[in-house]
Write the structure tokens for this entry.
Amino acid sequence: MLKIVIGLVLFGLILLVHEGKCCPDGWITHRSACYLFSREVQTWIGAMQMCREWEGHLVEIEDVSKNAFLTTYASYRNHKFWIGLTDVVVENTWVWMDSKQILYNQNYHNWHKGQPDNLNNDENCVVLDNDFHYQWTDYPCTSLFHYICELPEVGIGGIVGR
């Protein structure tokens, strides 16, 4: 009987911890954030603006676990997806646009072999590339691709269903 009571108490505590935490309709929860895999295409700037309209930003990928989560979902859609990485300010200095963090060689990255290559001196934005198992490749920022937005989880009464 004591084991049942302890089990019910633990279950109740788990529910309390998760109560009120959710993502807006159409967004996917992973860890403590929400992700939207767009259905429409945009330029990189357009994608950044769309994510801001939803009070988020283009996704930033800090580790292998997050990259694996994103590539798994992206593979269901079989599209290229913009992420929040660019070298538009200084060539070959890759920066995550929301956090302003510079991507150094010792930081996590998942570039496809030979990337970034800045083909035709016109590739300053990064996609998860379905042609290369969702490894990162640089493309012209004016290309039209799907995109992934990210925002922190919100509680009931936040932007749910927006």
